[in-house]
């Protein structure tokens, strides 16, 4: 992240990740929030309810009976022209699955926080990225924050990205369960006036508005021609492509406003002179950076490519960084059964055959991976490549020993 | 009370444009047209999966003349909750109506229906009940009648019809009614009275479906009327604290004035396999339902 001198007045607060997301929702002057509790998302909707009670946010708060209804409600609200927000996690996200697709293909702007968590069985409330990655084909823009500040920034910028006429797709803001959601960190929060000037109220007529007495438009009835469906999907794909540009623009502006410019879809740490590249997303990227600093001190030439947005897939960025590297090691906190790590699977295809590759499956179900462990895994990979010339390991299950 | 003279002004108004994908004799077109008359064509509609998502024909065109959001099967009450709040925040005050079938209402969408009702969302929910999943080819739903043939109840459905209107009454919403496409004035009055009230309004509209009920295309209204005349379908209205029997059903409080149940049953192929003792059981069920509704009308 590069720093600039910010234009906005900012105050420093200390908040947990969930509360930082709520803070961004307040500053975005969201009109409608639907709420259903699920750990570890609950703090978001609780904090928003307090904000509304205290009059800090003038929004309709809808206490729905399920996550499916939570997304259906904000979908209806967005179709009615409102700026709408909800939040979920894990099983809740999966209960929404049908609506995820409907909301995205309807092309109404929406923002939803996804506090990542493992899926049962067995019951497990701890962190894993499998839930948010299961959204990846649905048409949502999907980001993963690294820390509390970024969770805040990503939420605020999400409204601007989602409502851009060149995009009009819903945005999911991912933050790691407990690791970010329940951990307090200092963050800088811009003033309401500065946010207002930067993020005007939503234009209800873009893309369209369904309202009583309004124009007799219809959304979602059968296409007259099979090809029509394909054309709509192609439009969606074009939106995803232009989202890459829009995200870059929005972060550029946001960087000027707040002094924080992460780079659009990816952020690369100590990459410019690196011969090896680690790839990751989410909160544990901080620990990996720490491990990389220590490997650098030992003479290892390695950097970290952090995926900030999984969708649209930052293919050009990734290919650019891979170019000239000797080896790529991808850390997945997720598992696609019968395949392996999701990021490893997506990135694998971009890695030339003469470059070493390892996909590491770790941290599933929330087990901690320390900087020391990251260091050891990366060092082994580099050593092996240097020794053998080429290493191709599609999946490596990193599972610490437990006492039974 | 709406009068025929008043409705005449809609004589040439096409609330649903011609050339729809509905079957001949479709009750949904009849009912939706009555709904549109009641609201003078000024409302927004949320329609979950079902016949009514196919009837308007193919995008980018639509036969419906009001704004419509087509939504997934289970989601319509929740979508309408968000929609109505959004338009209100923007200062638009017209009605938001969910027009849903029995499957979307009584079965898959029931949690969302219950949620929207208990939150007292300011919407009108019309359940157009053709008593089966007709759009997927006549499978039994929660409101399919006892012993009715469907493709998933080939020897007749063993469960009783789910009484959705009474269940909605117990949600303490301000307005619940039953209606029938054969009694347009009654239905239109009910829609208009409901629209005077802020909060959740529910109308259970009886809508006989020729292919699903295995009867002639021309029998739609006849079957709907016979359901009322035989007492099998009771028209009642609960309006903010008072439950009454609606005028078309009043004569049939008296069992002797009801037409024989066979008149209603025998025009429907879905009941062709019924034995006389089945019809007797059905009659007993109808009597019990009348007892219940009349007792409720005394105490509510
Ligand atoms: S199946 Fe019945 S309800 Fe459906 S379109 Fe045909 S007649 Fe209408």
Automatic annotation (TrEMBL), chain A:
InterPro entries membership: PFOR_II, Pyruvate:ferred/Flavod_OxRd, Pyrv_Fd/Flavodoxin_OxRdtase_N, THDP-binding, Transketo_C/PFOR_II
The enzyme's E.C. designation: 1.2.7.11
Keyword vocabulary terms for this entry: Oxidoreductase, Pyruvate
GO biological process terms, semicolon-separated: response to oxidative stress
Pfam family, one: POR_N
Superkingdom to which the source organism belongs: Archaea
Any one GO molecular-function label of the UniProt entry: 2-oxobutyrate synthase activity
Residue stretches making up the Pyruvate:ferredoxin oxidoreductase core domain: 274-373
Catalysed reactions, as listed in the record: a 2-oxocarboxylate + 2 oxidized [2Fe-2S]-[ferredoxin] + CoA = an acyl-CoA + 2 reduced [2Fe-2S]-[ferredoxin] + CO2 + H(+)
Record-annotated Pyruvate flavodoxin/ferredoxin oxidoreductase pyrimidine binding domain positions: 24-250
Oligomer status and interactors: Heterodimer composed of an alpha and a beta subunit. Heterotetramer of one alpha, one beta, one delta and one gamma chain.
Protein name: 2-oxoacid oxidoreductase (ferredoxin)
Source organism (scientific name): Vulcanisaeta souniana JCM 11219
UniProtKB/TrEMBL annotation, chain B:
UniProt GO molecular function: 2-oxobutyrate synthase activity; pyruvate synthase activity; thiamine pyrophosphate binding
Transmembrane feature ranges: none
CDD domains: TPP_PFOR_porB_like (cd03376)
Gene3D superfamilies the UniProt entry points to: 3.40.50.970
One Pfam family recorded for the sequence: TPP_enzyme_C
Superkingdom of the source species: Archaea
Domain Thiamine pyrophosphate enzyme TPP-binding intervals: 50-204
InterPro entries given in the database record: PorB-like, THDP-binding, TPP_enzyme_TPP-bd
Keywords: Oxidoreductase
Annotated EC: 1.2.7.11
Catalysed reactions, as listed in the record: a 2-oxocarboxylate + 2 oxidized [2Fe-2S]-[ferredoxin] + CoA = an acyl-CoA + 2 reduced [2Fe-2S]-[ferredoxin] + CO2 + H(+)
The keyword Transferase is annotated on this UniProt entry: no
Quaternary data: Heterodimer composed of an alpha and a beta subunit.
The name this protein goes by in its record: 2-oxoacid oxidoreductase (ferredoxin)
Species, as recorded: Vulcanisaeta souniana JCM 11219
């Amino acid at each position: 992240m590069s720093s600039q001198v910010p234009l906005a007045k900012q105050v420093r607060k200390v908040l947990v990740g969930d509360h930082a997301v709520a803070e961004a929702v307040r500053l975005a002057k969201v009109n409608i929030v639907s709420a259903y509790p699920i750990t570890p998302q609950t703090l978001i909707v609780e904090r928003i309810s307090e904000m509304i009670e205290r009059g800090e946010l003038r929004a309709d708060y809808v206490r729905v009976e399920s996550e499916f209804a939570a997304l259906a409600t904000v979908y209806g609200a967005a179709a009615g022209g409102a700026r709408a927000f909800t939040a979920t996690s894990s099983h809740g996200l999966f209960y929404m699955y049908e609506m995820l697709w409907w909301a995205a293909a309807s092309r109404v702007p929406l923002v939803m926080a996804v506090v990542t968590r493992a899926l049962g069985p067995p019951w497990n409330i701890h962190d894993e990225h499998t839930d948010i990655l299961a959204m990846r084909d649905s048409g949502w823009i999907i980001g993963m924050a690294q820390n509390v500040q970024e969770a805040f920034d990503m939420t605020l910028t999400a409204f601007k990205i989602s409502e851009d006429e060149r995009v009009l797709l819903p945005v999911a803001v991912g933050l790691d369960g407990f690791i970010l959601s329940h951990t307090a960190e200092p963050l800088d929060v811009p003033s309401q006036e500065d946010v207002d000037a930067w993020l005007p109220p939503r234009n209800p007529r873009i893309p369209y508005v369904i309202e009583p007495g309004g124009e007799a438009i219809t959304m979602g009835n059968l296409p007259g021609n099979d090809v029509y469906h394909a054309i709509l999907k192609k439009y969606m794909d074009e939106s995803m492509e232009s989202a890459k540009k829009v995200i870059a623009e929005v972060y550029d502006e946001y960087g000027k406003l707040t002094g924080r410019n992460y780079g659009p879809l990816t952020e690369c740490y100590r990459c410019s002179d690196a011969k090896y590249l680690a790839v990751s997303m989410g909160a544990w990227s901080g620990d990996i950076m720490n491990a990389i600093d220590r490997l650098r001190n030992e003479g290892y030439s390695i950097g970290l490519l952090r995926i900030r947005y999984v969708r649209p897939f930052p293919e050009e960025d990734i290919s650019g960084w891979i170019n000239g590297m000797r080896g790529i090691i991808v850390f997945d906190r997720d598992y696609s059964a019968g395949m392996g790590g999701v990021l490893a699977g997506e990135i694998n295809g971009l890695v030339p055959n003469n470059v070493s590759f390892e996909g590491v499956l770790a941290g599933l179900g929330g087990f901690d991976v320390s900087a020391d462990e990251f260091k050891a895994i990366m060092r082994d990979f580099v050593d092996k490549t240097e020794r053998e010339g080429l290493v191709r390991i599609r999946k490596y299950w990193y599972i610490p020993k437990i006492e039974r | 009370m709406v009068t025929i003279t008043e409705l005449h002004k809609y004589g040439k108004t096409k609330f649903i444009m011609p050339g729809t994908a509905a079957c001949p004799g479709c009750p949904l077109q009849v009912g939706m047209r009555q709904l549109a008359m009641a609201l003078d064509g000024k409302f927004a509609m949320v329609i979950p999966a079902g016949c009514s998502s196919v009837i308007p024909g193919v995008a980018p065109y639509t036969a419906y003349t009001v704004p419509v959001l087509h939504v997934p099967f289970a989601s319509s009450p929740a979508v309408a909750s968000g929609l109505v709040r959004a338009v209100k925040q923007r200062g638009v005050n017209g009605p938001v109506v969910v027009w849903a079938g029995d499957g979307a209402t009584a079965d898959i969408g029931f949690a969302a229906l219950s949620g929207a009702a208990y939150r007292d969302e300011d919407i009108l929910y019309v359940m157009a009940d053709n008593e089966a999943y007709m759009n997927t080819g006549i499978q039994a739903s929660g409101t399919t009648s006892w012993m009715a043939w469907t493709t998933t109840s080939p020897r007749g459905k063993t469960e009783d019809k789910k009484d959705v209107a009474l269940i909605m009454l117990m949600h303490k919403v301000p307005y619940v009614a039953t209606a029938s496409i054969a009694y347009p004035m009654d239905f239109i009055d009910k829609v208009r009275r409901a629209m005077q009230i802020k909060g959740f309004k529910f109308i259970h509209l009886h809508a006989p479906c020729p292919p699903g009920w295995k009867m002639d295309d021309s029998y739609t209204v006849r079957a709907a009327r016979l359901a009322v005349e035989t007492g099998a379908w009771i028209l009642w209205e609960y309006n903010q604290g008072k439950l009454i029997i609606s005028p078309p059903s009043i004569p049939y409080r008296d069992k002797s004035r009801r037409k024989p149940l066979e008149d209603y049953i025998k025009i429907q192929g879905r009941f062709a396999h019924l034995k006389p003792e089945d019809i007797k059981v059905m009659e007993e069920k109808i009597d019990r339902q009348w007892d219940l509704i009349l007792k409720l009308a005394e105490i509510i």
